[in-house]
Queue: 4 jobs
Job 1
Amino acid sequence: MAYDTTQAAGAKLYISATPTGSATTEILGITVLDPVEIGMRTPIDITTLRDTAEQWDVSGMTKSATLRLEGFASPGDAGQALMKTARAAGTSYNFSYELNDGVTTPTKYQFAGFITKYAVDTQSGKDAVAMFRSELKITGAVTEVAST
């Protein structure tokens, strides 16, 4: 069976320059990016003490995800600088994650989120490169824009 798959290589993550702007500045150097979860719901147990045979659940609200990013630290990169600005401001910025799948326009996942962590690895040895680690908490809905 053949699958229509998309390689992670070539995927890009963009951040907005301002909290309300469009995500147009690419964050360079990313080597690890957790999956973007769309519509994950946590069931709510509504079983009562009188229910003896089965457990009852209802669908809960959509839970926002936390993305973990890692990559090569680059102080001169505008995208990494905006991540640090967003973390310091504590406000939500807009993001766009683009797959490497479209002939003309790639599939995009657009969302708002908070940078909750940005750290540079200071334990690099003489044969290592400085790495950054960051966490991004998605807030609100993730919108998928199909490729063309």
Note: Confidence is low (pLDDT under 50) at residues 1-5.
Job 2
Amino acid sequence: MAVTTAAGLFYFGWLLRELGPESLGAWLAWLALGMIACLADLGLRESLVRRVAVARGRGDDGQVVALIDTTVLTVALSMAAALVAMLALAPWLLPPQAASASPWLVGGIAAMVWLQRVADVHAAALEGLQQYERVARNNVAAALVGVATLLVVLPHGGVDAASVGLIVQYALAGSLHAVSLSRSLQGQRGWLPRRWSARLAREGLGFGLSVQVAIGSFLIIESSTKLLLARQDALALVAFYDLAFRVGRGLRNLLVAGNRVLVPRLARASAERPPEGSALPASGDVQTLYLRSFEVLLLLAVPVFSLAFAAAGLISIATRGGIDPMMLVVFFLVLPAWFVFCTVDPVINVAMGTGAMRPLVVAHVAMLVLLALIMAAGTVAQGLGLSLGPPPWQGAATLAAATLSVVLPSLGLLAWHHRAQQLPLQRIAPLRGAVVIAWAWAVAAAVHLLPPAIWAQGLGWLCASVATVLGLRALPGWTLLARLARRLGGQA
């Protein structure tokens, strides 16, 4: 996953460097429409992981094949219809400078988004079979080929060719996943789907729609934020926001990847016991596992996200040729949302694994409602003649609203989980955690006070790394990690 994340960041960083923020911002505005269309997969991709795990646990490979084929065909058809509908609305949703794009750009984005969702369905099936290594190998190979394709075609096609590398990447990933599925199921399933079941599709919607509310909230927040920035004539901020968003999402995915193996295991466990309406199986061992995973995740997330903000100056130098103050502002406003959302991942895994999705759905609906309320308040303020200044600072206010709409419900979800499971918040030492987090982000911000030269920023980042690690000793996870290191050292 690290290679795939790095390849994705390089891909969009290279686009920013070669096309410039304005041209890339227009391309990303179209991509935002395509991502809204992804809601049409109805959560079937995420629900497939759980359903395949349960069917495989019963030894019913025929059901596994039927589930995969039905989900692939349903998502492929629903996504095609949604993409046509969303892109047709572009003249009314995008500003004129972005809406007047060439058919090559629009068609490329539509093809890329469609291939991505179909490839993701095949990957979800492999995850349900617990074939994580195959998914990772396939994604790495496809990502590297996609980057190579970009480097070849971008100098000749410009912004119209920006999607070509991703089209190649997702087409190859989907093909490799299909081959891996055929091998895992010992030839019971071919490369292409052969059957479709209305019953299985309806059953998948029950759990899938709950998951889609959770997953879809981030799609809506990301895409609506980009569209709002574009309509505020802040296309450069769209490009900076996309880069910061991808950095935050990539770092979170890297940190929580190990916990994803709990989802199919919890799904099997919950399928074998009568539903009790609780968010966790009634086991002290599971609660201990949750607490330890939270402590370790917080210990890793604090330095990773704060040092990513500290590296924003270096990223700006690499992509813009110098330090752009607005890029620093965007990183400062975007990364905290991903940091907080990362820390609640243990709660999300439990909800997805056991099927107790209601608290997760409520939290994500709250994100959307809160975002709408904040945006509405901003609109009313503008109507009253209150202005935040030029478009870049109006865009910064939009980003702050998006971050606030994620942070508050995420913290509420964490607090609810501890209350519902009768786990005192003191078990995760919230006060010490808050002090360490504030220290880490203050150290990271200090790096940007240094001269805008790569040597000064690099040296500052190294010093911030040392200071941040020293502060981590106050977190509960540090003791756990030290104990584990001593145990491994003793075995060696």
Note: Residues 31 and 328 are 23 Å apart (CA to CA).
Job 3
Amino acid sequence: MGLRNFGVSDTILELGSPLNREITDFLNGDQYTLETPNDISTLITGSNGNSASVENPEGRNGIITLRLLRHSSDDIFMMREFKKYKDNPSTYQPLDMSITEFSTGEDGDKVREITTMKAIFKARPEKKNTSDTEGKAVREWSLNVANIDENV
């Protein structure tokens, strides 16, 4: 279980089917979140002291929340995808999503960690005004994600 925050300046978020769009229309200094509410496994211990691990497939699912500048090209892209979903949810194909994080490894080299998943709309997007001095309007997108896989 957990909540991971991704800084928009330290990561690359790509979206599409296939991956073909880098999402960049965030507020300066903003972040997006990936919530994974379920554990990936359960450890069961019997009366004899032996233990076994049982995989929980729900542990590979989560919710990602993006706050995009309203009416930006990325927001318009999401609105078009949302309309496709609303028009025919039974045939809509989930979007491929990839998050690439950059960090410095133990030896000082740059390291990339890539998290891939499938995404589909969880709820209608919410319009929000920010509390920063510029008062920019954002639209908050909440997507269900499945098959979260992390690779280095």
Note: Residues 2-151 form a domain with the Pnp Oxidase; Chain A fold (CATH 2.30.110).
Job 4
Amino acid sequence: MGIYLINSICYENKLKLFFLSIPIVVSSCDLQKGINDDTKFLGTTKGAVMCIEKNKQQSELISEKLVKNQCVKKHEIEIDHILNAVAKVYIHKSRITVSGIDGKNTYDDKIITSMSIKVTLYDEEGIQYSGVSFINNLWVLPNTSFHNLKVDLYFDYNKEDYYYDWCSNKKDNNTACKEWGIESLRGLEVLID
């Protein structure tokens, strides 16, 4: 009986020690995961850099540029935009080209990584045609200009080479017109330790 009682006490103490040590192990695993978890810095340059470092070994199979582009895409977030830009809009059958897009990143702390461009046409009957396309893999630093960006938008439109004035210059409702704009911006916040 005495031996059983001693073994029972030792067994209970071992169980208590075992259960007390489990949270420490789990906590240290969570801590380690937090150190390497780039998603905690979503939307920042720090998160993108951590992602690139974490995936560097894949550059043996895929290019470093692809790793960078995918990490930036994973971490970029939509940012507010008050951006002035100019461009030329060319109308072709089933395609519109917006070229010579020039503008400036006016942010002090954000890098522009992609943007969506929208074009809308109104024909003589007032029917609206519109399309959106993306320009990806940009790297426009804060307070830096961008020049000569180009994008093609594809949609069903059968009136080639018709002259369209800008809708902002429209004098009456029966005039066909065109308008374009930057619909959205995506980017990374510059985060420095």
Note: The chain has two domains: 2-77, 78-189.
